[in-house]
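REVIEWER CHECKLIST
Item 1: Sequence provided? yes
Item 2: Single chain? yes
Item 3: Sequence as submitted:
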Amino acid sequence: MPCRATRSDATVGAQDQQNSTSDLGTNYALFKAYPDSENVTITLSWLGHEVNMDRKRNEPIGTTITRLKRSLQKFVNVTSKGDKNAVSDRNAPSTSGVQVKASQDSGVKTKGESGPTSTVDPSSSGLASQEAGPKVPGNFSISFMTNTFKPFDLQQTLVEVAHEASFLSINDTLLKIFNNIFRVMDVKIGHKAVVGCPVTVAIHTDGPCNYKDLLVEWLDEKDQPLYKGTVYIPPEAMNRRRMKVRVSHKKMTWNIVESKFCKVVDAPRNRWQHERVAHFNSAPVATTADPMQSDVRDLRVMSFNILSPTYVSTDEAIQRFFPYCPREWLDSCYRNPLILREILMVKPHILCVQECATSAYRDYIEPILGSQYHSWLTIKNTTSDEGCCIFLQRGIFDILESQSLTFKEEVRKPEYREVLARIGVGNWLNYNEVTYFNRYHTIFQMLCLKNTLDDKNNYLFLANTHLYFHPNGRHIRLLQTYVMLNELERFKERCAQRYGFDIDTESSTIICGDFNSFKTEGTFHLMANGWVPYNHEDFDFGLKYVHEKFNPSQQRAPFHFTRSGTVYYPLETKERLEVENCKGYQDAYSGRELPFTNYVKTFNGTLDYIFHSKNLKVKRCMPGISEKDAQEFEGLPSKIYPSDHISIAVDF
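Item 4: Structure as written out by the authors:
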């Protein structure tokens, strides 16, 4: 059953001006008149019953009142016949577009409780006790009134009156008018409640929700307050106890809805997670005299592949990728709280996420991080329903420009034809210029930001990506990297011209992602130098590679090819596949390389990177974990960690 809204009585002053029976908690009128709508939606809660109408915004209120009288009269006639089914059915056909139903009973009720659908008996409500005689519209006295109880001219339009009126009077009963205000209809605690992990509340309303108008309270099983706010992190003291959420509307104080009780469960203890974050936060901060960086503030950047539920949703996928991991630990309801625990422990200013599923973003991550971060999700395709997401801490950055690109669309543009010819795509196995790249859904997110707290007053370019995964798809990853860097340079040039700054002296760049590449591959060389030879060996993978399902057990298997006369690093510019104006980027973990960022039973290696322009200096890096820790449950993900990738983070 839906949660019930409580009703509280309120009285109106100035009784000398209006002899009325006032019950403004039970009786009220909602007017929703939005600029882009031709109609005004009217909801009346009157003497225990609800009436809904849609009227043209420019009609005279005299017409509105006449139709309202007819609707109420129709309701009187129905209730006098005792046809209560017709009254409570909101979907029944209705002339004049009016719906009437019995409202819910008074008092706070949580889901699962039973009770009558109406607290008012029509025979005693005043609806069926009008004066004797024919039941005609004129039996109702209805008027719109100002805050001084003066009626409006009947020729004024409904939309004008809706914004100016304070009360609607029906037979000496005052209904307070609320404009463009939603009601709380249902409240649920999102996902499972885990000690030390953030829990959010799902609030369902009958219109656009403004959280500033709501009071959200977390209560224990004894109705004692625990916390106020939309996100709550249960402490150890709440382990195995029950809690609920109460949401009340600040402007309509009788509109109070509670969730069901939810039991708090203990969180899996992760020693190395706490240790590496603590080490990161306590490590000495390297000094920098770089003119691009703040002397007093660090900029913390985090990159995290969170493992999309798409890839653990079937028995086949689990057996191929994570046979050592029980389904319970792969379930999103289990992993999502642990993902957010990791993020909130690191507390990044910038967070770049890969394999972010729409469902995880919509139902859990964004509701929890939304109050602290601006976010931007880009989905690869509807089949996988996952992609990349960037979170920017609120109050720090002005977002000047954004750009989202898809590799398969960019690479087919005319400007890349010469490049494709030079790298020999015509010789690739099964190559077809129309269809070959259709299956490669890699996306590139790019932002131009201005750090409002930076005393250097500089600009920041940020990019996020997730390159093609197959170990034998090195030719695809190298080409994807070239397209990304090339489009990033174009993006930077456009922004610099629009906002009037010099790219080299007034901006810096950070690129995050799961590159699915080792440092020995062409992808890393291109990122570091801004060029690779046209005849780089990675392009030869296209000669034998056929797109297929990936078997993790083959991750380390060599992919043999032969080509005589390969020149790896020609000095002549004409032999280089070069990104114009790109001077290359540094690996933030250079000199502090991690043994792995991805660890499953059949493979481990460093695939995730944070690259930065050479005018930025790294102050400290978050350490990785030992192989022994990763093997505690045979591999990742596990009981204590939610992804097959560990997060990486850097302070600039």
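Item 5: Key structural point noted by reviewer: The radius of gyration is 32 Å.
Item 6: Recommendation: ____
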